[in-house]
Design a protein that fits this description.
Chain lengths: 450, 164
């Protein structure tokens, strides 16, 4: 009788050790260095240097009493193709390692082959829940390199659209978070309300998502006739409904038990992990780029920066719910204060001539042709622009060599960075808490993998 | 001009004239000490780390005293208390680019440095887990390098080789 083959730890090492650059997976403890182990158990603050003995953590559990399992990449709670490898002790999480890259399509490489005019269509697909804010970040970087001013009306249109986008993004978050916690009615409601915003996007830009609406030099089109009424309806309806959701969820005992006090993070840990957005604000750090380093016209409108106290799941929920209200408050002010004028820069170098001019003017035709074949040349230099996306600081770093295409375009995705907090947040919690952690960190995999 | 933090290593080249932002140009040896001094000076957050391959743009403008190399690591630090950003561009080398990791200062730089390694093959000394992050782990080459050649691998559906 032949002996049965058993996949021991040594065998696993052989399986993954053959590849060129080393394994991305969660390894057995004895094969993991202390620094890496520290990350996986969520030890972030190292005051005197971290000194973890692989065998001394969780000493009450030996390696063969725990289990390394995969969660994802295709799992309904992972919000896309996020793969988590968990070391479990029974039902409790000891170590976590996110394995990403399943949605990687090389968008930064693609960006080097698209002209600045086309670039917006690329970046808008990164964080597909907040396309306007991606485009805004990219356009602001290009404008900074070009050194052009954007007309006042374009600034306010941009601000209104990005706040509406924040509302729709947070509504999707409310929906998916509700679904993860078993409140399927919240999912239907959240997606229903988001449709209001998307319908307005469609009316304005022609598309529901991936708008390519904010472009270098301004926005693609003026607001449609009667936009004030449409936007007011959105504001009134969604504001009223946030109070319904308050009633539905906030006091709900099961909902509270899943969130209150679960997966806390301190301000020091969040800062060390470069975490931004609602995740950082939940710890009580009032850091919101709209307030702290104002761009567009955020210094001319009134709004509150919502901060939490405990940094737990419930704070993150409450912050997002209230940010919907604050965003709608900004949108209302935009309706009142929207200036008249051009919606895009009149600089013929970056803005195509109006359609009517092309039929009668040779120069306009040439300009139009040049702009959409070759694109405009951008002065050499490098720039980093950052704006506040619903998930945190989204940054765009562009290097230009003076040509019509970016030499290098790098996007700092807030989800990509925030994902590093997951091992810390999951440590010690149960599997069901792991679901709420993924949900409240709110990663958008399109942006994580780019 | 940027005022360097008091503990910064001497003779770090700084410039605010090149682009729209402020930048420091340390050498590889000064890099870690410089970032460390910025951290002590109140730059709490490491916003971004990314690599750049300047193979086709070696004649880029740099302040005097900085020798251009093919690879560059660009680090953006953010100070919440001062509401300021600072950019650190370190020339990482030509053939085997390598700089110190910021992991000991900012644990949050881990994933970003892994990405720079994955995309450019820039090594980060003492990084705890320098493996590929976005590409499959058996991938050959570093796709964002300028000599990588996009379109080198035939894509299915487009000039795909026939059956057999």
């Amino acid at each position: 009788m032949s002996e049965p083959t058993i996949r021991t730890a040594e065998r696993v090492e052989l399986l993954v050790g053959e590849t060129s650059e080393g394994a991305q997976e969660l390894q057995p403890r004895k094969q993991t260095g202390s620094d890496e182990l520290g990350r996986e158990v969520g030890a972030v603050l190292r005051l005197n240097g971290l000194n973890l003995d692989p065998n001394s953590i969780d000493y009450e559990r030996r390696d063969d009493e725990t289990m390394i399992i995969n969660m994802g990449p295709s799992h309904p709670s992972t919000h896309g193709v996020l793969r988590l490898m968990l070391e479990l002790d029974g039902e409790f999480v000891l170590r976590t390692k996110p394995v990403i890259g399943y949605l990687h399509t090389g968008m930064e490489k693609t960006a080097e082959e698209l002209s600045y005019v086309q670039g917006g269509t690329n970046v808008t697909r990164m964080d597909y829940l907040s396309p306007v804010i991606n485009e805004l970040c990219y356009s602001m970087a290009v404008e900074k390199l070009l050194g052009i001013e954007v007309p006042e009306r374009a600034v306010w249109i941009r601000m209104m659209m990005s706040e509406l986008n924040r509302v729709s993004s947070h509504l999707v978050w409310m929906a998916t978070n509700g679904m993860d916690l078993g409140s399927t009615s919240m999912m239907i409601y959240g997606l229903r309300d988001r449709e209001l915003v998307l319908a307005f996007f469609e009316k304005t830009a022609g598309l529901r998502m991936n708008l390519n609406y904010v472009r270098p030099g301004g926005v693609a089109a003026d607001l449609p006739d009667g936009w004030q009424d449409d936007v007011l309806v959105i504001c009134d309806t969604v504001t009223e409904r946030t109070y319904e959701y308050d009633q539905l969820l906030t006091g709900q005992p099961i909902f509270r038990q899943r969130l209150v006090g679960v997966a806390p993070i301190t301000a020091e840990e969040a800062l060390a992990l470069s975490v931004t957005g609602p995740l950082l604000r939940s710890t009580g750090v009032p850091w919101d780029l709209r307030r702290s380093m104002p761009y567009l016209a955020y210094d001319q409108v009134e709004f509150d920066v919502i901060v939490g106290t405990y940094g737990d799941n419930f704070d993150r929920y409450a912050i997002r719910l209230n940010e919907i209200r604050e965003s709608l408050r900004i949108v209302r002010q935009c309706i009142d204060m929207m200036p008249k004028g051009d919606y895009r820069s009149q600089d013929a170098k970056v803005t195509p001539p109006p359609r009517a001019r092309i039929g009668e003017s040779m120069e306009a035709l040439i300009h139009h042709f040049k702009l959409f074949t070759e694109g405009f040349h951008v002065p050499a230099g490098e720039v980093y622009s950052a704006v506040e996306s619903p998930r945190g600081e989204i940054g765009c770093y562009i290097v230009s060599d003076g040509g019509p295409k970016p030499y290098r375009l790098h996007v700092r995705g807030p989800s990509f960075v925030n994902l590093q907090a997951i091992p810390l947040l999951m440590r010690g919690g149960s599997m069901s808490d792991a679901i709420t952690v993924i949900s409240t960190v709110d990663p958008v995999m399109g942006e994580v993998d780019r | 001009m940027i005022s360097l933090p008091p503990l910064a290593p001497p003779a770090v080249v700084t410039s605010d004239a090149l682009a729209c932002d402020l930048a420091c140009f340390p050498t590889r040896d000064q890099y870690f000490a410089l970032v460390s001094s910025f951290k002590d000076d109140g730059f709490e957050l490491c916003a971004d780390v990314c690599g750049v391959d300047y193979l086709e743009y070696m004649d880029r403008a740099l302040p005097e005293g900085v020798a251009a190399t093919r690879f560059e690591v660009v680090t953006n630090l953010l100070s919440l208390s001062k509401k300021r950003r600072v950019r650190i561009r370190v020339q990482a080398g030509n053939e085997d680019p390598e700089v110190d990791t910021l992991f000991d200062l900012y644990p949050g730089s881990e994933a970003m440095e892994r990405e720079a390694f994955d995309m450019y093959g820039i090594l980060f000394t003492n990084h705890p887990d320098l493996t590929r992050i976005l590409m499959p782990e058996d991938w050959e080459g570093h796709p964002l390098r300028k000599d990588y050649g996009s379109g080198r691998v035939p894509v299915q559906f487009k000039e795909a080789p026939g059956p057999r």
